[in-house]
Amino acid sequence: MDTYNLYNLQDDVLFKSNDSFYDFAGEVCVKVEANILRVQGIRNARYLIRATNLLDIPKLDCDEINRIKADACFEYNRGDLVIKQGTKLNLDKLFDALKEKHENYKKKHHHQ
Asked: Which residues on neighbouring strands pair with residue 90, listed in sequence order?
């Protein structure tokens, strides 16, 4: 398992796709965050950067999402679900790092 410094990512992280992207997300965060990305079809950094409503999974009702909810959400006694803060923070951290990396990559390659 690799250790990633999110403040010093290599450029190749922007080109990871499908399983290599989900593996990366699972190592940076944990498997549940990688599964949230996978089930929503967010298969690379560019998709993640453009994603909206990433954490709307408590509102969705389908078997594939319901399996993830047990790990990603708390259920209130009245039945409402809320995303666990650790899950939200991990995805925010991953999003911020990849967005910054993407912006820096564009600047670097725009000037060449």
From this structure: none
Per the structure, the complete domain to which residue 20 belongs is given by 11-110
Asked whether the whole model's pTM tops 0.70, one would answer yes
Domain contains 2: no
Residues 56-96 pLDDT 10s: 988 888 898 999 999 999 998 888 999 999 999 999 999 99
For residue 5, is it within any domain?
Answer: no
Cα–Cα distances in angstroms (integers) from residue 22 to residues 27, 32, 92, in the given order: 9, 10, 16
| CA–CA gap between residue 92 and residue 58 (Å, rounded) | 17
Q: What is the full DSSP assignment across 56-90?
A: -GGG--SHHHHHHHHHHEEE-TTS-EEE-HHHHHH
pLDDT in tens, 24-48: 999 999 999 999 999 999 999 999 9
Domains held by the chain: number: 1
**HSE-up of 91 (CA within 13 Å, CB side)?**
23
Contact 49, 94 (CB under 8 A): no
